[in-house]
Amino acid sequence: MATLAAIALYLFLPQRLLIAPRYVLPALECLLLIPLIAINPKRLTRQTKAFRVLSLTLVAVIAISNLVALTILIHELLYAGVKDGRSLLVAALQVWLTNIIVFGLAYWELDRGGPVSRTQVPRSALPLADFRFSQDENDDAVQEVADGASGASDWVPTLVDYLYVSVTNSTAFSPTDTMPLSTRAKAMMSVQSVSALLTSLLVIARAVSILH
């Protein structure tokens, strides 16, 4: 559903922000999504090398296309003299929402080997974590909080947790209660923060000024 939402947001972008005919990238993304659903139609319990490559490729395609759309949007703003503040504001919000979705998916796909590994592989065999969630350090809290900690309840983060990380990083421009641990997590959060900052401060501010 998150992937389909990102595809839909791209479909409704203004034509001048697209790097290819409108339906080319969404069609490619759907083609990548179909076998992923076929491998795990109900729950993510199976993972093959092909599955991993397809899922990461899908996220990369969405991320790159959205960052390109943001780049074109900023170029249009600076050099094309855009005068339609309403369409500019809507396009900026679409890019910003897609940014949240795609980085949430990226964190979900990469952390501790991916969603299948996190639920199917023993903790001792998992790769090093990319993020430290608050549940990972609640063992010594009050009982009702400690009962939900990772060590006590075998809690693992879900897509909603990573989308929350993405939302807070796109609004606060920094981590909040979830800390990046690995170099790649810090790099990805940096890219997301900068792109969200540009969208918020430059594009949306300019669109509002045009409306006034």
UniProtKB/TrEMBL annotation:
The keyword Membrane is annotated on this UniProt entry: yes
Transmembrane parts of this sequence: 20-39, 51-75, 87-108, 194-211
Keywords: Membrane, Transmembrane, Transmembrane helix
Top-level lineage group: Bacteria
The protein's name in its UniProt record: DUF1345 domain-containing protein
Organism from which the protein derives: Streptomyces olivaceoviridis
Upper lineage: Bacteria, Bacillati, Actinomycetota, Actinomycetes, Kitasatosporales
